[in-house]
Amino acid sequence: MARSMLTGKMPRCLASLMGILCVLGAGMAVAREVKLPELSKEERQLASNFIKGRQADTPDARQALSKALMYEMSRLTHNRELPNYGSIRQSIYASYLATYRPEAKTAREIAVQTIARVAAGLAGSADYSPQTRINALALLAELDDIPMNRNMPPRPSIHARNALYSIAADDNAPLYLRSIALYGLQRQMAVWWNLPAPWQNEVQPWDQNFKRELGTALVKIIDSQPRNPLEQQAHTWLVRRAYDCLAAIQNPAVVPSALKVLTDAQSPYSLRLTAAKYLSQIDSSRMNDQQKSDYLIGTAHLLRSALVSWYEYEDDKIKRVSGAAASSGYGMGGYGGPGMGPGMGPGMGAGGYGDEGYGAGYGGGEGGYGGYGMGGPGEGSRAGARPKPKDTQTWDALLARRRANEIAEVVHVCLDGIPAPEGKKPGFLGVPLKDAGLAAELQSKLDELIAAVEAFQTAINDPVPITDTNSVLNVAESPIEDIMDLVLEIPGFSEKYPDLVEGDELQTVQRAPQNGNEAGGGAGAGGNGNEGANNGPGGGGPQGDNNSGPGNGNG
Q: φ and ψ at 156, to 5 degrees?
């Protein structure tokens, strides 16, 4: 379960999708515009005071709040406002939904119900432009009766659930809308599927018939195929969101499908990663022996191919910058490259279109398991006087480590339920392979693979020898080559992947030239680094899902 599932933070991939479609559609005419209601300055102030708990509950206050919300929602249909749709949506959230005050409970209920009703009408109708429908649906997906606080997750609004399900399950709806709707359902399922004890006396649990209907729809999505080649990438996004929904409730219904994706070297990297994350939520001890073997073999291949692709992509990027000839291929994974545009909302940055490649952060962009991310041991309490990576490493080095850490942490969790050496097992995981009851010959190799992953993680997260991407690759080369050889020893691996042979080696990366100005080079004292954190490179470009290398774009 990614952290965004509980915080309400939209995954970078979906946030960036919204940004791209708004940019691409900037010249499109809006099919229908809703007339703006007349709203006086006094009514606007009355609505603001009401939602903040400064105004008593009166008919005039209720009417003013409804009119103010209708005014803002109607702006999402006007062509002249198209460049501002994202900021309008964020403003609605910040002004009416971001905080909860007990004294404004009635106002909050009116706001949530009004937004749910209007947004459902906009998102569900083909009369409105794609940009209108996307932003309305994003409001629905993140609509909470009560926002998250320190002690409890958010309470996704029941008023949004049915509209989200209607769009997600509609085979004729645009795939990008269905993906956003599934994100909203994932948030709902993470909380309401198994109702938290503190809320059992206040909230009606979901009907069992609806649960069965929703589960059937999710399985149908995962088993579906794109209708044409142009839909391949959008369909991959949709299937990934369906896996995320089932992972949120630890439903084992699609274990065979997930194992098939995980072991398929030709499947898009992002889909294989999502399948691995889904399987990490499942009790692997209940798999049969063949499934356990496939799980280990597929995870080992994902690790090998992704790390080789990561290494070769970063190496080629260094060569492009330095003017040297880059190699023609990117190994076995389709790493992807910079994303295609900024994030679309509060907390949604650090990404572009290609974040489908290495996005959804297990300790990377969105925090995930609380692993290394872009800091490493130097950022934690165990570091002592060791240097902090953000002070000594370039932005590219930090980003390269983030990407590599995500790969390693996903695999580490699948193997033994712990994202990093000396880490703690998150409480929401299933039973990892280490505790699955593997055959003796598989168990011994699994233990060796865990040790190899930890050696890799330790190497790339040691802040002392790393200053730039060259040095990241220097310390990573030997651990990756050890993994490349080790996976071949897993029983059944070579038979599954006969094209991989022992003795493959990575090309050694030369150390970068040093000069007196580069000591403690960092990321430009935070200037460019902060900019990159909001609008910078994503984790894999639009071509990354097709295993073909870097994405083209400018994150």
A: -55, 140
Question: What is the spatial distance between Cα 443 and Cα 440, in angstroms, rounded to a whole number?
Answer: 5
Distance CA 293, CA 281 (A): 17
Q: How open is the CA angle 298-299-301, to the nearest 5 degrees? A: 65
Threshold 0.85, pTM exceeds: no
> What letter would DSSP give residue 262?
H
Q: Residues 55-79: pLDDT tens digits?
A: 999 999 999 999 999 999 999 999 9
Query: What gap in Å lies between CA 535 and CA 546, rounded to an integer?
Result: 24
Residue entry with tokens 């102030």 = 45
Which amino acid belongs to residue 92? I
Judged by DSSP in three states, 9 sits in coil
Q: Are 352 and 537 in contact (CB under 8 A)?
A: yes
Tabulate helix, strand, coil % of the chain (nearest 5): 60, 0, 40
pLDDT digits (tens, 9 = 90+) for 461-501: 999 999 999 999 999 999 999 999 999 999 999 999 999 98
Which tokens in the block code for residue 150? Answer: 């320190």
Residue identified by tokens 């290398």 is: 549
| Residue in this structure with the two tokens 């233990």, named with its chain if needed | 447
Residue listed under structure tokens 């299933």:
430
Q: Which amino acid is at 461?
A: N
475, exposed or middle or buried, with CB in 10 Å at 0-12, 13-18, 19+? middle
Write the burial class of residue 29 (CB in 10 Å: 0-12 exposed, 13-18 middle, 19+ buried): exposed
| Nearest-10 Cα torsion for 18, 22, 28, 29 | 80
Number of other residues whose CB lies within 10 A of the CB of residue 503:
8
Specify the 3-state DSSP secondary structure of 507: coil
